[in-house]
UniProtKB/TrEMBL annotation:
The lineage of its organism: Eukaryota, Metazoa, Chordata, Craniata, Vertebrata. This is C1q domain-containing protein. Signal peptide: none annotated. The keyword Mitochondrion does not apply. The keyword Transport does not apply. It holds the Pfam family C1q. Residues 7-24 have a biased composition (Basic and acidic residues). It is found in: Secreted. Residues 43-146 form the C1q domain. Residues 1-24 are annotated as: Disordered. Keywords: Secreted, Signal. One of its GO terms (cellular component) is extracellular region.
Length: 146
């Protein structure tokens, strides 16, 4: 009788270990399923690119602004992936990758200055500034980002 009880206890302990191992494997499977779902979502997005301008055509003035102001590029030529929001002026990168941003600012004569800042997650990444005391001047800002 004691031999049978000992065998039963050993068998029960073995079953508990197997159950614990199965739970670990189930947790790992759920993590992998989540990762697969994320990768599938990234594949759905595909390519991302946008091209937009402040003005529909030609040149003109924007500003001055007394404080930092988000410039909203409302005239959108291209918005592949719909990552740029022309209502807020915010681009949200839907997938990890390399992104390139390029902009041009200018000022004309007098003691006017102009500048633009590229902001990523509320952090200033790059600043372009132009101060032309006579004639006209243009400055290009460009940044590749990951």
């Amino acid at each position: 009788m004691r031999l049978l009880q000992t065998e039963n206890k050993e068998h029960a302990a073995k079953l508990e270990r197997q159950e614990t191992e199965l739970k670990k494997q189930e947790t790992e499977c759920k993590k992998q399923e989540t990762e697969v779902d994320k990768l599938k979502q990234q594949l759905k997005v595909g390519q991302v690119a946008f091209s937009a301008s402040l003005l529909a055509t030609g040149s003109g003035y924007v500003g001055p602004f007394p404080t930092f102001t988000t410039l909203i590029f409302k005239h959108v030529d291209t918005n592949i992936g719909k990552a740029y929001n022309p209502h807020t002026g915010i681009f949200t990168a839907p997938v990890r990758g390399a992104y390139h941003f390029e902009w041009y600012i200018g000022t004309y004569g007098g003691h006017q200055a102009s500048g633009a800042v590229l902001v990523k997650n509320l952090q200033e990444i790059v600043t372009a500034y132009e101060h032309q005391t006579s004639g006209g001047g243009d400055l290009c800002g460009s940044l590749g980002s990951r």
